[in-house]
């Protein structure tokens, strides 16, 4: 397929114009015109670029791309090496941040719910953009320690942090990645538990003082699934080749 075709399709599919974000969503670095193979990954780090280029990617699609608001505007060092590699090899880079988090079927939040079997996810409406925090009522209550165990089993890693009194959980809320700041919104909405990727010092006090169970399951670990699902969707829709490359990240 042609790059412009992919660009138009993705911008529309992920409704990028409707969501305010801290980085440009969609095409970030222009490469060759024709795309046969897509590589997906969580973050456009040097190792992902190298492996994608070795595996003959024409386009790399990531959740964490470049050009974040407030970052230095000068191209040097790490940033120069990454951009140079892409430009030298004429490979396209697409990044989808919040539009991918919130997509109702293929997004990070939706895919985490799918992996964890959390039923009928719906957006927590007190938080914007809609869908950045999702909630679900479990079909039967589950103890907090059982929740911790199943997160570890399904994500294949130890939790960073689990704050609870082994209380029964029924109404849960979650936000993949660095969503710890939303714990108060989840508590205010009456949720029994909040699950995200990272933890901050104040998150612990929020959990303890509001009696909401809290689980930090890894930023990378909770955000592997959206971009992978997007790549699989494109392969099915357009017959392009797709490979997901997981660059391990303990954070
Ligand atoms: Zn993230």
Automatic annotation (TrEMBL):
GO cellular component, as recorded: cytoplasm
Binding, a divalent metal cation 2: 64
Keyword Metal-binding applies: yes
Protein residues bound to a divalent metal cation 1: 63, 101, 219, 223
Keywords annotated in UniProt: Metal-binding
InterPro entries in the cross-refs: DUF34/NIF3, DUF34/NIF3_sf
GO MF entry, a single one: metal ion binding
Family (UniProt): Belongs to the GTP cyclohydrolase I type 2/NIF3 family.
NCBIfam families, per the entry: YbgI_SA1388
This protein's name: GTP cyclohydrolase 1 type 2 homolog
């Amino acid at each position: 397929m042609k790059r412009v075709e992919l660009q138009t399709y993705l911008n529309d599919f992920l409704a990028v114009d409707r969501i305010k974000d801290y980085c440009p969503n969609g095409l970030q670095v222009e490469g060759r015109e024709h795309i046969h193979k897509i590589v997906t990954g969580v973050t456009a780090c040097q190792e992902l670029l190298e492996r994608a280029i070795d595996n003959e990617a024409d386009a790399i699609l990531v959740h964490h791309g470049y050009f974040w608001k407030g970052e230095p505007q000068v191209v040097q060092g790490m940033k120069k090496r990454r951009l140079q590699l892409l430009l030298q090899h004429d490979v396209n880079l697409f990044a989808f941040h919040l539009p991918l988090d919130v997509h109702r079927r293929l997004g990070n939040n939706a895919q985490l719910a799918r992996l964890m079997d959390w039923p009928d996810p719906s957006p927590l409406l007190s938080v914007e953009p809609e869908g950045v925090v999702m909630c679900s009522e479990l079909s039967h209550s589950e103890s907090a320690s059982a929740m911790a165990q199943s997160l570890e089993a399904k994500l294949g890693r130890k939790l960073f942090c689990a704050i609870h009194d082994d209380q029964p959980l029924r109404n849960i809320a979650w936000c993949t990645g660095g969503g710890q700041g939303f714990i108060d919104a989840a508590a205010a909405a009456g949720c029994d538990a909040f699950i995200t990727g990272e933890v901050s010092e104040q998150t612990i006090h929020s959990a303890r003082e509001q009696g909401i169970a809290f689980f930090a399951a890894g930023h990378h670990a909770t955000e592997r699934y959206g971009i992978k699902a997007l790549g699989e969707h494109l392969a099915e829709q357009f017959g392009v080749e797709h490979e997901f490359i997981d660059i391990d990240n303990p954070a």
